Amino acid sequence: MNIRFLQTVVWLSELRSFRVTADRMNITPAAISSRIAAIEQELGIRLFERDSRDVRLTDEGRTFVSGARDIIARYNNLVSEVIPQKTVEGTVRIGVLPSMALTILPGIMETLRNQFPRIRVSITTDTSRMILGKLQQRELDVVLGFHEPHEDQYRVVNLCTFGMFWIADRRLQTHDDILTKEDLLLHPIISYAIGTHNHRRLVEYMSQRRLEECVIHYSDSLTTTISMVAAGIGISILPPIVIQDELRSGNLKVLNVNQDFPSTDYFAVYLENPSSRLSPLIASIAADVAADYCALYDNAIASRY
Predict the structure, then answer these.
(1) Are 22 and 275 in contact (CB under 8 A)?
(2) Which tens digits make up the pLDDT trace of 98-133?
(3) CA dihedral angle for residue 160, residue 166, residue 172, residue 178, rounded to 10 degrees
(4) Which of 3, 79, 7 is nearest to 281 (CA)?
(5) CB atoms < 10 A from the CB of 212, how many?
(6) Domain that residue 130 falls in
């Protein structure tokens, strides 16, 4: 039994298909079956129940996989300590929210270029729902954004917190008084797409009833939302960290409201990959970069989580 055999058991336990596991590990289904049979024969127990449609862990198999994950993690940590950084190689697929792409991602790429030049990166920028779905399907290795609660299979690393403020076009006429929620609702609101993390928080902030009584537009693109606000189409909740140039130039402005919108927490999220050390490496680099990045700004704008 070796580390590759342990990785095979873990992959099969997650993917529940000899064919899909073979594709993932770049070997044949027959080789997967042979490895599993060899381990079961060595242990004298069955790790999997098999039928024509599914592969399921036995009770003994679940115990074995738990221990195998620990051994693989320790092995990967050991290898990371002894192998020179510049020789680490492979491709890592990163899913990022637009706000992360505009802030943290450049620092991550610079670190990789300087310290891990043989690592190749594939970037997907999309909504939280889309990139988390791709992570679940193993189409991505690590996500920089949000995570769904109560998902035990996720490995989550805290990154940072960005302040969220009501933003408007500079031409919007407002009184000098502090604005209430009722004042905000007098203007069209540009919301994040329905079902997204920050749309749910907007509903909690305003209440569904209030939002149904006002004009509300939806956008699933951060760049599009910023452009719509700048064009005077409506006001929106945005992290000022991503519109520093627009605020400095005076094209956009922060509205003074009497009830702050909650800040947004960001995380590096990944599923343990039995064959790769790159996901936890990217998560660790992202945490370091986020700490350095946030140190440049006031805590109300960006802070370490």
Answers:
(1) no
(2) 999 999 999 999 999 999 999 999 999 998 889 999
(3) -130
(4) 79
(5) 9
(6) 90-161+264-304
Going by C-beta distance under 8 Å and a sequence separation of 6 or more, which residues neighbour residue 72?
3, 6, 7, 10, 274
Q: What is the CATH number of the domain that holds 298?
A: 3.40.190.10
Q: What is the pLDDT of residues 138-197, one digit of tens each?
A: 899 999 998 876 566 788 999 999 999 999 999 888 766 789 999 999 999 999 998 888
CA distance 238 to 244: 11
Cα torsion through 123, 128, 132, 135, rounded to 10: 0
Sign of CA dihedral 122, 127, 132, 133: negative
The pTM score is 0.78
Radius of gyration of the chain (CA): 24
Same domain for 268 and 128? yes
Q: From CA 108, how far away is CA 282, in angstroms rounded?
A: 8
Per-residue pLDDT tens digits for 18-45: 888 888 788 898 999 999 999 999 999 9
* C-alpha atoms less than 13 angstroms from C-alpha of 219 in its C-beta half-sphere: 20
**Is residue 149 domain-shared with residue 122, that is, in the same domain?**
yes
Number of domains in the chain: 3
Residues 198 and 236 both lie in one domain: yes
Number of helical (H) and strand (E) elements in the chain, helices listed first: 13, 12
Give the count of alpha carbons within 13 A of 264, CB side only: 24
> What six digits make up the tokens of 76?
């990967």
Same domain, 157 and 269: yes
Asked which of 27, 57, 82 is the last residue of a domain, the reply is: 82
* Among 76, 99, 80, 108, CA closest to 288: 108
Contacts of 201 (CB under 8 A, 6+ apart): 261, 262, 264
